Amino acid sequence: MESAVEAHASVSFSTALRFWWKLGFISFGGPAGQIAIMHRELVEQRRWISEERFLHALNFCMLLPGPEAQQLATYIGWSQHGMRGGVAAGVLFVLPGFVLMTFISAMYVLFQSVSFMQGILFGLKAAVLAVVLEAAVRIAKRALKTRLSWIVAGAAFVAIFALGVPFPAVILIAAFLGFVRERAARSAPVEDTSPPVRAGSNVRSAIKVLLVCGTLWFVPILAIITTLGPEHVLALEAIFFSKMAVVTFGGAYAVLTYVAQEAVQTFGWLNPEDMLQGLGLAETTPGPLILVLSFVGFLAAFRDATPFEPLTAGILGAVLTTWVTFVPCFLWVLLGAPYIERLHHQRALSSALAMVTAAVVGVILNLAVYFAMHALFREVGVWQRLGLSIPWPSVQTVDVPALVIAALAIVAMFRFHVPMLITLAVSAGMGVVYTLVG
């Protein structure tokens, strides 16, 4: 499929490849930082895409499940060089971070008991609380602008923390509320000034995208289930992370709530401390933060390796988890890219996204509380009241060194605006000093 969007500036495919390869190594800072890098490089400096196209593409990608920064790179690559450009941009955006995260996962399981490594992980685990809180505040400033949005955020927090409502249900209810609210308002329709779409050509392209991406997505899953059985850990991972790829609106921090609910509590693949340390490690690597799922997939398969060797199983788990997480991202972008202008004018979709974003604030706040309980306390019990079973830490088991590191990280990021990577590095160093000296 050739590009349906006229490029702002003509650029060769080889030049584009070199940029996407470079971006894969420098894309630190989470979605906000990665989007800022692409805007500076592609809109302001290289002028490969116009400001209007960039913003339209970003709005479209924020409507999709999955990592919006990677999907934005995929869209811009598609706009320049069609299908091959989109695939190249999306893959190269993820590949360096995936390789590094898989290597880090192996080091984690092989050297976790070494004192130096324990110190690094202790410091990162405490500092992650500051990172999650900063994300919640940043998104809240953008999303909570009306009384209804505050109510939705609060309801989302209570639903997950106190009532145990599954993350997908919270997101779907919020989207439905936003959609119904806009339809009920019956506001005047927006004049559609977007260029006409050639239906026949795009129907053929859509069928092609569905067939190719659907095959790449489902054939490996069927092969694993047929070969290893539906109860094997790799089969369970393939099915679980495929479902997650469809409902994970709101970015990686929101996704982690769902992963914590299922991977930790339901499947028992890892414990809350693993989740904390995996997020801290993912924050220090380039690429989408959602690559923390590669860490989860590695640990789950490593610890239930039969019939493979543990390290081989771990690598297979990381590859499979990453595959079923990102193949759907290409499907959503390449399927919807020709219609991006029309999607931009759909107020009901924009309203649904606004309510989802508001709910995500409550979801991330729940994640912060979850991480705080497991990072700062040695024991977490259950508080029984009004028929509810709410997790609650034992105050007598507070971990004072972890509390000090977390407090310093929060002050550094919120008061002095110290960059996240520096905060994590210093926190890891304090963890090493405490472990070796203490």
The amount of beta strand, in percent, is: under 5%
Number of strands: 2
Largest sheet: 2 strands, antiparallel
Mean pLDDT: 87
H/E order of the elements? HHHHHHHHHHHHHHHEEHH
User: Helical proportion?
Assistant: over 70%
Low-confidence stretches: 1-8, 190-201
Q: Could you characterize the architecture of this molecule?
A:
- This protein has 17 helices and two strands.
- The chain has 438 residues and is mainly α.
- The protein has a domain of 134 residues.
- A hairpin with a 2-residue loop joins strand 1 and strand 2.
- The protein is globular, with a radius of gyration of 22 Å.
- The N terminus is likely disordered.
Q: Mind sketching the topology for me?
A:
Blueprint (H helix, E strand, L loop, with lengths): L12 H14 L3 H16 L5 H12 L5 H44 L3 H29 L3 H15 L5 H19 L13 H30 L4 H15 L4 H15 L5 H12 L8 H11 L7 H27 L3 H5 L2 H30 L3 E6 L2 E6 L6 H15 L5 H18 L1
Antiparallel strand pairs: 1-2
Helix pairs in contact: 1-4, 2-4, 3-4, 4-12, 4-13, 5-11, 5-15, 5-16, 5-17, 6-15, 7-15, 8-9, 8-13, 9-13, 10-15, 12-13, 16-17
